[in-house]
Amino acid sequence: MKGSFEGLYTFLEVAEIYGIDDSCLRKQVARDKFVIGEDVKKMGRTWIITEQAMIKSFGALKFEEYKKKQQKKEHAKDKKLNDIHLHSGSNAQNISKGSRPKRKRSSKKVHSMNDKEEKIRDSWVNGDIKGVELKNFSFNTKDSE
Predict the structure, then answer these.
(1) Which of 7, 56, 63, 85 could form a disulfide with 51 if both were Cys (CB 3.0 to 4.6 A apart)?
(2) 50 - beta bridge partners?
């Protein structure tokens, strides 16, 4: 990990590292096992925990295994990027973009499903269609069958 967030982990990451449910961590916060603001902090809807607090509570063994896996992934990723840079021309482009062919955009004009209704509305707005003006009207309020 790089940047200012090095040494900070989300509860989901901790749950993955130690094979526990992230709700277990939230329960421990509720039971004051962690000091809010020092060990853990809530950022929006996400809880984060410091590396020190995580190791103190859950141990270093699984965390070290996790870090080794992350380093291997990072090394493999760097190696792949270096291999791509070694290739030249279109061969490098094919490796970096994968084997998918590039999709072409359709030249057909997309019409609205309500094309007819839009034309009618525009005609009313522009004054092309003249309506019938009602002078008066009344409602029949009697319930007759």
Answers:
(1) 7
(2) 8
